[in-house]
Design goal:
three-stranded antiparallel β-sheet
């Protein structure tokens, strides 16, 4: 359920971003590049393609049991 209007460029930092619907009337800006992650209670926050949140840690692509997820975009105007 990755309803997207297409990748865009962040006005503040110039990085590629995308938008994921994470609930009714709720959209979250994420980094456009997916990360391959495994669930981990002590990990970082990621969003799945369907918009659900998860705590996970990044793994190499070749590792079995990984799934693609996106990091929320937090630039703070760097750039």
């Amino acid at each position: 359920m990755k309803n997207s209007t297409g990748m865009k460029v962040c006005r503040k930092c110039g990085q590629m971003i995308d938008i994921i619907e994470s609930g009714i009337y709720r959209k979250t800006v994420v980094d456009a590049v997916p990360y391959y992650v495994v669930p981990d209670a002590n990990g970082e926050q990621f969003l799945r393609i369907d918009g659900s949140k998860m705590l996970a840690r990044e793994m190499p692509f070749e590792t079995s049991g990984t799934e693609p997820a996106y990091k929320p975009h937090r630039c703070g105007g760097r750039g």
